[in-house]
Amino acid sequence: MGRYAAERAMLGAQPIVVLDDGAGRRVRIACHGAALLGFEVLRAGRSFDIADGNRDEAEIVAHSGSRFAIMVPFGGRIADARYTYDSQVQDLQPGVAGPDRGFRHGFVRGTDFEVRALAADARSARVTLATSAIRPRPGYPHAIDLAVTYALDAAGLALDVALRNVGDGDAPCFFGWHPYFRVGDGMADDWDLQIPAQTLIRTGADLIALDGAAAYVALDDAPALDFRESRRIGDHIIDQGYTDLDAEADGRIRTRLRDPDSGFGLAVWQEHGVMHAFTADTISRSVRRAVALEPMECMANAFNRPECADAIRLEPGAERHFRCGVEIESP
Questions:
Q1: What is the pTM of this model?
Q2: What is the CATH number of domain 5-329?
């Protein structure tokens, strides 16, 4: 590797951070939403961006498609924007009725994060982006401090996310990341996908998991959505959560995306939680030209799932970390 560097820059009027390894890998991160914009790597001797992120300042502000969104204090949807926590019914959209109700992906996609630390040395380039924007609001009477550390090193790009409860009572919260990755210039149909899960999370038409045990289906019973063995995506439309994930010997769970023609691929890793895969069929641009591989600490609508109660609970003064990232797997 070359000499690592970490510096501030601008994309139009939007402040960004650039991490560089001096040998062909370059990461750009927007301070708005702490969202990854690009991750350039060498592919067949040329620079190739594996990240299908926001392209300009307008897209950064609009965050359409939640590209590389940091999702806190919850990821995915909350059914009817309502949940019950510690016997208290909470409504995230008071006064809103009918089809306009709906809340997803947390509160920080439109938040300007501060650069708390920025450094580089012989082994890595790092930035910590932090916000205290999660404070009591309708439907969420809690206070969470959030810090997201991105680190570029020889292994790839790693995220270390810290959630700290700075309120007076227990708070429900969990982390999710919404990256869109590509392994070629073509369509996702031609790429191979592998998800090391044993169980599919079954949802209704509203993309909310079914109640109780009906939400969990062994992949032996859902062959069309079974990607335990790497196989071509083809014309499958995927917008599914997967759980009961299998870790490899180093403790990391790896979901893999690969271009079979070139052999170029990547692995999205996490240490626990669930994986949500989305073939980008309903986004406003680049339809099926990237695949969202979303490491999540808990499943969507976890605030309404009794089996998730312990995992989402954070006591006053406590801090919880979630770690995930992406590795390049070149031939």
A1: 0.97
A2: 2.70.98.10
